[in-house]
Write a structure and sequence with these properties.
Layout (H helix, E strand, L loop, with lengths): L1 H7 L10 E5 L1 H5 L16 H9 L17 E15 L3 E15 L2 E17 L5 E19 L24 H10 L2 H8 L5 E4 L2 E7 L4 E2 L4 E11 L2 E2 L22 E6 H13 L5 E6 L13 H4 L6 E16 L2 E15 L3 E20 L2 E19 L6 H23 L4 E2 L6 E4 L4 E3 L2 E10 L5
Antiparallel strand pairs: 1-9, 1-11, 2-3, 3-4, 4-5, 6-7, 7-9, 8-9, 9-10, 11-20, 12-13, 13-14, 14-15, 15-16, 16-17, 18-20, 19-20
Length: about 450
């Protein structure tokens, strides 16, 4: 019965990762300090959010007849704000806040509010990663008392039960609600991880989280699947022959983040560019007239009596592939080249198959991977069809190889000159980047830098 059902039910596309990242413990602890308030683009800092929320005036309470009967916060100082990794579980947020609390006209107590919150990242119904709290425990203890401090600060009644001992009466739900507010800004940024990024005007890339992250001693491991759109339509990608998993990070690496990209990722990238027609190009072979080629191809004289420039039109005939070896990345392009003259429209007189193997150079600028053709390692030409009789391979190379060797890498570099955006969260960029090509995958350890952008 199970075999019969498997034949009746259509097979679904298997979703598997082709890239990912490991946010290390040092990356988790990273924070950018600023002498001034963060700009709107960078958002309010977590300490500033907590400080302003704790000191925000509570809503008026008509049941209280005397303002003096209510507790007031006169000072807030965030001493510690740290996030640590708990393997196999998630993260632990630790906050220590010194509070100055006026509970009577002439009495002020210095209290320390300690908050421990367990956090983890999960997938929400929209398919985005979301940071949530699984536990929150605030505690308050008295440090010392002083006399007659300024009583003009906002009141505390939204956090402490009025008329009760402030050591014992903490409004836990309100405190933990304020902690959850701290997650609003990070979650806005997490949503930007799956945003579409342009590669060319007609081709876009997205990095889709496949599941909630895993937590290990190495860090927070996120698996991503790459999807591409061409002219607004998602395209089916080649099936990955080998399942990809994040390689283990070197324990001695001080980097904040380690990104990894599979061989299949790069093949999918060039497949998407091929689908968009990015590698179809027209090359000028000869600015001189056709008669200069006639001695090599005598039958051309009967096709073209006048002086016409010779051009080559190249288009992909099968999907490109990228092969990753230790220390190098190789692009294999398979083209069909039509050779002809424009008189006044293009008239082809022969076509040939062109197989190109080109070394790729990979680097990172900001949040973009810059891919360029460093060198062509091999080119093979073979005749596919001819209206001018048989043409030897040696003659094809003599007539057309110099143009192909120069123009094909130039076209690749033009297509990819803007770079390919890496998975990243808005407002963050990558620094201290090291790109290493291994067999079957590329490893990119880097550090994080939070940018403050104006406007």
């Amino acid at each position: 019965l199970s075999i019969l059902l498997s034949l009746l039910v259509p097979a679904h596309t298997i979703r598997s990762p082709d890239c990912g990242g490991i946010l290390t413990p040092s990356g988790l602890k990273y924070r950018k300090s600023r002498p001034t308030s963060p700009t709107p683009a960078a958002g309010r800092g977590s300490k500033s959010v907590l400080r302003q929320d704790l000191m925000a005036p509570p809503a008026p309470d008509p049941s209280l007849t005397s303002p003096s009967s209510r507790n007031q916060i006169t000072a807030v100082k965030v001493d510690e704000f740290s996030l640590t990794l708990i393997p196999d579980t998630g993260m632990r947020l630790s906050i220590d806040v010194d509070l100055g609390i006026t509970s009577a006209p002439s009495t002020t107590k210095e209290m320390q509010l300690s908050i421990l919150a367990d956090l983890h990242v999960e997938m929400n119904p929209e398919g985005n990663l979301e940071l949530v709290t699984s536990a929150c425990k605030p505690t308050l203890e008295e440090l010392q008392s002083t006399e007659e401090m300024d009583r003009s600060a906002p009141r505390l009644s939204s956090f402490m039960s009025s008329g009760s001992d402030v050591n014992k009466q903490i409004n836990v739900e309100k405190i933990c609600l304020e902690v959850s507010k701290l997650l609003l800004f990070p979650n806005e940024r997490l949503m930007s991880l799956a945003a579409p990024f342009p590669i060319t005007p007609s081709c876009q890339v997205r990095y889709v989280p496949l599941a909630a992250p895993m937590y290990s001693k190495q860090g927070i491991i996120i698996s991503l699947q790459t999807t591409f759109q061409v002219s607004g339509t998602a395209i089916p990608l080649p099936v990955s022959p080998v399942p990809f998993s994040m390689p283990e990070r070197a324990s001695s690496s001080p980097s904040h983040l380690t990104l990894a990209f599979s061989e299949h990722f790069y093949t999918s990238l060039f497949f998407a560019l091929e689908m968009s027609g990015a590698f179809n190009t027209t090359m000028l072979v000869r600015t001189s007239p056709c008669p200069e080629i006639t001695p090599f191809l005598p039958q051309m004289g009967s096709l073209f009596q006048e002086d016409l420039p010779v051009v080559l039109r190249a288009a992909t005939r099968s999907s490109p592939r990228v092969v990753l070896e230790e220390g190098r990345a190789i692009l294999k392009l398979f083209l069909t080249a039509q050779i002809g003259a424009v008189s006044p429209v293009f008239q082809s007189f022969l076509s040939m198959n062109v197989d190109v193997s080109a070394r790729l150079h990979l680097s990172v600028v900001d949040t973009r991977m810059i891919i360029s053709t460093a060198a062509i390692e091999d080119i093979k030409l073979s005749l596919a069809a001819s209206d001018v009789g048989p043409v030897l391979a040696v003659l094809l190379e003599e007539l057309f190889l110099p143009t192909i060797r120069e123009e094909v890498p130039a076209q690749i570099n033009v297509v990819l000159r803007g770079g390919v955006f890496l998975p990243h969260i808005a407002s963050f960029t990558y620094t201290d980047v090291n790109v290493t090509v291994h067999k079957d995958y590329v490893l990119i350890p880097c550090n994080l830098q939070l940018e403050a952008k104006t406007g």
